[in-house]
Amino acid sequence: MSNKSNSPQTSITAKNATQSLIKPNWPLYLILIMTFVIGAVSYQFLTSVQALSAGLLFICIAFWATSLVPAYWPALGLFAFATATQLAPTQVIFAGFQSSTFWLLFSGMVFGAAINHTGINSRATRLLMLILGNSYQGTIIKISLFAMGLAFLIPSGVSRIVLIIPIIASLADHFGYDQNSNGRKGMLLAAAFGTFLPAFSILPANAPNMLLSGMAEALYNVPFSYGEYLLLHFPVLGFGKLVMTIGVILWLFPDKAPNQAIEATIEKSVMTKIEIRLLIVLCTCFAFWFTDSLHHISAGWIGLIAALICLWPSLGLMAKNSIDKDIQYGTLLFAAGIIGLSAIIAYSGLGNILVNYLTEVIPFSPNSPLLNLSLLTFISTCVAVVTNLAGVPAIMTPMAEHLANITGLSSHAVLMTQVLAFSNVLLPYQAPPLITAIALGNLSISAVTKVCLATFVLTSVILLPLNFLWWHILGMF
After folding, report:
1. 369 & 269 share domain
2. 327 shares its domain with 342
3. How many CA atoms lie within 13 A of 87 on its CB side?
């Protein structure tokens, strides 16, 4: 009798499952059609390599932005397609695996697993509990301020993410926020964006800043001053963007106050030998990160050496199966794919073609400095979307003098518009630190994308005009 009563429901479920399998996936079809159209149209004006690169760029960005497939799938597809069609040399296609950013991400996953395995996360959580208080809004604000403070101490954005995300994730657990709760997402997003976005206004705190500074000095003999750079950018792009980001997170991800009953369960205890060992490894790693200007060893290779020490079996800093269980290889492939895509685009020359085209069609006027600043920021923003954030100084800096002659602005003002562009992130794929945060915090790409889009729009509408006003007060134009 019971079997008969269940059979209609079973058949309905099976029918729905079958319909979901055969239902056309229109967004997927649309992306494939658009990719073919972009490639075909590009072929009429560009070389075959550039046309294929343009199609590859579109389909990868579309898949990563929409999350129609797992993030690693476009990366693997990129490797296969680019290798089969010989779009670029293999060292360009697989440049991501040679990048220090890739190995910094790997070491960050190892550090996170070791911190959880040894219990140091609980100790750090208890300390932060004493600071953060009981309010959800206050927690988001204080995490953001703490994260921004790290930008003045640790020169690498990915390194800061590696340090703070596992601790905040543990704190969210102890506060009673489950995996899919707004509270957990809000705390992790506050840590990630709080230590990432304001850092563009602090000269040594992010890779694009340093790339811009180094190229400007090499090409034009114009060294940047730490204090001048901070004064120019921090009031609006630093602190102003932090305040804006806090508001966006509280608006998009509201939640209740932390669960105090869970908070009270963490007790004081004496540190174990294993915890002390891990602290020695991490502190040594951080010390080398802090002093990278002295020894010039990349943060990625320092992190890899520290990760190898953590993985040494007899030290007991990791579980025996951590290398299989705790390392998210899909995210590593995602990161390698993004870096490889940027390298392919740079190799094909698409970025330079875009800039040359935009400078020809955009109506610059020597008598309209505010309009010219806005248009230069727009060009750099387009470059950031096509390549990534670090691609902006690589492509735009060699053209600074040419653009200064066209616009009537000073070369310094032209160079500084790059900061306005690469500090305004449209989508997560542009920024390795955000990819790292997604991996270590198990954040959904959609949650990070929402914050990116909201801050991008608000920055364009509110902060950029305020920043131009600030520059005018300082006499930049």
Report:
1. no
2. no
3. 30
Residue 82 lies in a domain: no
Q: Is the domain of 286 the same as that of 145? A: yes
Range of the domain at 362: 337-474
Question: pLDDT tens-digit profile of 216-271?
Answer: 876 787 778 878 888 999 999 999 999 999 999 999 999 888 765 444 444 556 77
Does 201 share its domain with 278?
Answer: yes
**What is the tally of structural domains in the chain?**
2
For 421-456, how does the pLDDT look when each residue is reduced to its tens digit (9 = 90+)?
A: 999 999 888 888 898 888 888 888 889 999 999 999
> Residues 110, 230: one domain?
yes
Query: In this structure, are 365 and 430 located in the same domain?
Result: yes
Last residue within a domain, chosen from 331, 364, 389: 331
Q: pTM for the complete prediction?
A: 0.71
Query: Within this chain, do residues 104 and 249 fall inside the same structural domain, yes or no?
Result: yes
From the number of C-beta atoms within 10 Å of its C-beta (0-12, 13-18, 19+), residue 168 rates as buried
